[in-house]
Specification:
mainly alpha, single chain
């Protein structure tokens, strides 16, 4: 087996566009599971008790994972030239400057650090960005495109619903400010302060740190809370409609492709 044969095999395994079967190649599946393992590792490593007990071992495991990522990154750069879109030195450079590849470089940064800084956890958790490589798969890329096409088709409804949400929050904040400013100036002493109550209420989080005390304030709060739920239902309906249309676009394109064959 020649070096070119090995390069072609690696390219089929590493480049989602070169994989002739559905889904991910076995090697890309292995990398995906390693990414998920690395994310879990990054989360667990923030626990002080675990880190103090296994600090040196965790650092070693981290470098092993990064070493595998570095090898995979180098192999992708070495084989991506077989993709006609990235042929030649300029094509490889263009590929290396893609956002996903730049994110890979950020993820690999800790491998050059002998002693991990306190903010290393941020870079560890950035490994989740590597999952964005799934978007390079033709089927997933097509699904994402169809989804955004459907969202774009609903842009008028989304803009109107968004404007309604902003208007409702401003009106509710103003009403609660007028009703509660003298009773709870620290919470409702201004419209911007009251706006925090509106955001918490309309998102149904309900922290409970801002609660109307007057009868008028409670009445207005109840009215605007119900109005916020109705607006949220409208927004949900718009997104549900967009998803339905995206599914219909996908089915029609799939049927068209099938009839063309």
């Amino acid at each position: 087996m020649t070096i070119n044969d090995i390069r072609r095999r690696l390219h089929r395994q590493l480049d989602p566009e070169a994989w002739e079967h559905h889904g991910l190649s076995p090697l890309n599946w292995a990398i995906l599971w390693l990414i998920l393992l690395a994310i879990i590792f990054g989360v667990v490593a923030t626990e002080p008790e675990i880190y103090n007990r296994l600090g040196a071992r965790l650092h070693l495991i981290d470098h092993i994972i990064l070493g595998i990522f570095a090898v995979e990154y180098g192999l992708r750069l070495a084989t991506i030239g077989l993709n006609p879109k990235f042929a030649g030195a300029r094509g490889v450079l263009r590929y290396a400057l893609k956002p996903a590849c730049l994110a890979d470089l950020i993820v690999l940064a800790p491998i050059f650090m002998a002693t991990p800084p306190s903010w290393i956890v941020l870079i560890r958790l950035l490994r989740i960005l590597r999952i964005a490589r799934l978007a390079e798969m033709p089927r997933i890329n097509s699904a994402i495109t169809e989804f955004f096409e459907a969202i774009a088709a609903k842009r008028f409804e989304l803009i109107m619903t968004g404007c309604g949400a902003v208007l409702l929050m401003i009106c509710s904040s103003t009403a609660l400010y007028l009703a509660e400013r003298n009773v709870q100036p620290e919470v409702f002493g201004s419209i911007p302060r009251s706006l925090w109550w509106a955001v918490v209420t309309f998102t149904t989080v309900g922290y409970g740190d801002a609660v109307p005390a007057t009868t008028a304030g409670r009445f207005l709060a109840g009215f605007f809370a119900i109005a916020g739920l109705a607006l949220g239902a409208m927004l949900t309906g718009v997104f549900a409609s967009a998803l339905t249309e995206a599914a219909q676009i996908h089915q029609s394109r799939k049927a068209g492709a099938g009839s063309a064959k």
